[in-house]
Amino acid sequence: MMMKGKLHLTRLLMAFTLVLLLDACSLIPKNFASGTSSSSTQTTNGATTVAKIIPAHQEITPASSIEKRHLSVSYSLKTIQGKYEKLLRLTLIFKNQADKGRHIWPHITLVDAKGRRVRSYSLKTLRRITSRKSGSHDAEQASEQWADMFWIKRSYRIPPHGIAIGELVYHGKRLHFPMKLTVRIYKDYYRFTAEQ
After folding, report:
1. Contact 32, 40 (CB under 8 A)
2. Cys-Cys with 110: which of 16, 118, 124, 149 at CB 3.0–4.6 Å?
3. Where are the domains of the chain?
């Protein structure tokens, strides 16, 4: 119970820090100096995109949930309009409904309406993009902290009746809905249809 309280406090502190950092990035004056309005606008737009990818307030409303063998998998898929392409932020929630802990290795596949696999960013690429768009060392640190907490892990150890949350960011110039999301855990397949 004490561990859960510490984790909750850590997440609240992270959210508060992200709010301050991302607000600082987005509040650049439009007429900071002559001839710099376009770069200021670009930085603000970049900070807005970063804020959408890395939300300061993590309110997750699952679109759908499936339970198999005392493990519930829920997902949320949000579209983010980037400068050159669309992004999708996938949030997965794994809830252990059993009275004993379990260790899972999730395998995730996202396929569009035309049967093409949608590519996700690697963690390294996403960190590079968010740090470049924000233009702030503090925002870069915040994105790294967010990634450490929320980026999808290779495996999770979930305590009895506990949850784990993981996120991925997908990208593409044209995203065709509805999409098919498949999460495989051992021999169990959790299949979802994601509408826009």
Report:
1. yes
2. 118
3. 2-194
- 174 burial (CB, 10 Å; 0-12 / 13-18 / 19+) is exposed
Rg of the chain, C-alpha, whole Å: 18
Task: Record the tokens describing residue 142, joined without a space.
Answer: 């915040």
Of the candidates 146, 152, 169, the residue with the CA atom closest to the CA atom of residue 55: 146
Cα–Cα distance for residue pair 29/46, rounded to 1 Å: 14
Nearest-CA neighbor of 149 among 26, 1, 9, 2? Answer: 9
Q: How far apart are CA 3 and CA 101, in angstroms?
A: 15
Q: Where are the alpha helices (DSSP H) in the chain?
A: 2-26, 37-53, 123-134, 137-150
Instruction: Tell me the torsion sign for CA atoms 23, 165, 95, 15.
Output: negative
43-90: pLDDT as tens digits: 445 566 666 666 656 677 899 999 999 999 999 999 988 777 889 999
**Are the C-beta atoms of residues 192 and 75 closer than 8 Å to each other?**
yes
b/e string for 147-159 if b means 16 or more Cβ within 10 A?
Answer: beebbbeeebebe
Which residue, chain included where needed, has tokens 């670009």?
A: 42
pTM: 0.72
Count, residues in the chain: 196
